[in-house]
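Translate sequence into structure tokens.
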Amino acid sequence: MHKLAVIVPSLRKNSINRRLADALAALGREQFSFESVRLEGVPLFNEDMENDLPAEVEEMKKTVAAADGVLIVTPEYNRSFPAVLKNALDWGSRPYGKGVWTGKCMASVGMSPGAVGTAVCQSQLRSLLGFLGAVQMTRPEIYLQYTANFFAADGGIAAERTRTFLASFLADFAAWISGNTLSGK
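Result follows.
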């Protein structure tokens, strides 16, 4: 079983991406133990503070460093990823030479009410993660459109086809972290 750090860069109390992360945790409980990386208390990046990291940053970095992989479940804001995620990525890369992203297995998914889901923000995110040295699983790409009936009453994924697709994605991520090849879906 792989230890997975899950980052949901939405501070919204009723975030649809937090709900998606919870549904993914239920789907992937056979392959992963999931640990949420909370970003609410992480201060804005300030290079003056990087030699005496704030406790919230230390905790974030510790959680990521201890994980076998990182799953980012992100909304799309103004055709990009949320500023809170950029801030977390900046903190996680510092101080220079002591970043937690280099070599870390990572994947991203996201949900938005828009027709293209989170396609644009994930494209930009892949570019930044590459610069940070993350090892990214870039397919399948998951850009979900939120609809009122997406989630079942129990919080899971309502549509069987979507549930199967997301379960396959998680199985591929687990295999990929283990060094296996993707199934080709």
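Note: Helices lie at 16-27, 55-66, 83-92, 119-131, 160-177.
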